[in-house]
Design brief:
Length: about 100
């Protein structure tokens, strides 16, 4: 199966990549954790590559389950993650001062 391009993925999903890239740059995030619902996981590497190519960050893909905005991966602070980007979910206020979520 041929891998979709970022343009093809954006025709299917509203990823809000411009907003994400702006947030990463504004926060000067160096390590960004990308968290996807099951339906977007097949596109995770393409999205991660796009984000890395357009910012100065390193992306990490959360391969565990994701059941919504309240399903934040545990102990990401230990990994030095600066920002979590959850795709496909509503905004959620995460109170950890060291890690922000988009």
């Amino acid at each position: 199966m041929r891998q979709k391009t970022i343009q093809e993925i954006e025709e299917i999903y509203d990823l809000e990549l411009d907003r994400i890239l702006k947030k990463i740059k504004n926060e000067k995030a160096e390590k960004v954790l990308l968290q996807f619902p099951e339906g977007l996981k097949p596109y995770a590497q393409v999205i991660s590559d796009f984000v890395e190519e357009n910012t100065n960050c390193s992306c990490f893909i959360w391969i565990g389950s994701c059941f919504g905005g309240c399903d934040v991966p545990l102990d990401v602070e230990r990994l030095g993650i600066d920002l979590i980007v959850q795709f496909g979910h509503s905004n959620w206020d995460y109170t950890n001062k060291n890690v922000k979520i988009v």
